[in-house]
User: What shape does this take?
Amino acid sequence: MQTETKANVDKSVGASGQPVTILRFIGDISSTSRDAVLGTYQNLPEADRARILLDFSKVEYINSSGIALIIQMLLAASKSDQIIRAFGLTPHFQKVFTMVGITKYTSLFPDEGTAKASF
Amino acid sequence: MVLATNATVEVRLPSRLGFEKVAMGTAASVARLMGFSEDRVEDLKTAIAEACINAMEHGNKFNEALPVAIVLTIHDTSLEVRVVDKGTGPDHPVPPPDIDRKMHGEEPARGLGMFLIQSLVDEVEWVRGSPNGDNYMRLVIRLDKERLDKASQ
Assistant: This one.
């Protein structure tokens, strides 16, 4: 019943010219998404983890277990001074992320262009 | 569409993750028929998903033979949802999540479901020992005044 989560990794460049790694999620983000979310992050080469963008534009359903996976990723990143930002969340999930307090630890952008420009 | 007050819609789900999406879709359809705005429909979908997941996990211990029932009752100015499982409800109040503690590894990253439910609907209560012996979580989401004025014109 749950849609499998896929995560594609793209490399790009921020406005400062620094490399940015984009994790593009497709499908649901729930308790079954651990490998796609945390596994993809953990398998990135160290050099590709300095600046990460999370692309939620093809995600329709995120539940509390999925949000917990994002928190775990942010926690791991904060220990290594990595920067993670996000874009493509629907207005509803922007509200939910704000309610939970995640926006204290990451920034949400409406689209990829503004998100990349922030780096 | 004119909806009969106290009309009910009922869905029964196996206690398997993923089936909460059936309840979300059903509740969204009913809420749209009642005239709820899309942002409130999204609030309701998330709250019902979390209530169903709690019922499957904590109430029915993921025993797929035990159903989770979702009963949607249409009232004049609100939609009432009962999420029924075979559990007895939480033993103690669930504290709100603390993102700072989570981000310092001082509390588990999980434990957000009840907070989301309480934040997204207008009323939440756990009902034990109803007349028919059910225990359930009761959620209420109200039509806002603007919608009511529009509907009455």
In short: DSSP finds five helices and five strands in chain B. The helical segments of chain B are 20-34, 38-59, 99-103, 113-120, 145-152. Residues 8-152 of chain B form a domain with the Heat Shock Protein 90 fold (CATH 3.30.565.10). The two ends of chain B are 14 Å apart (CA to CA).
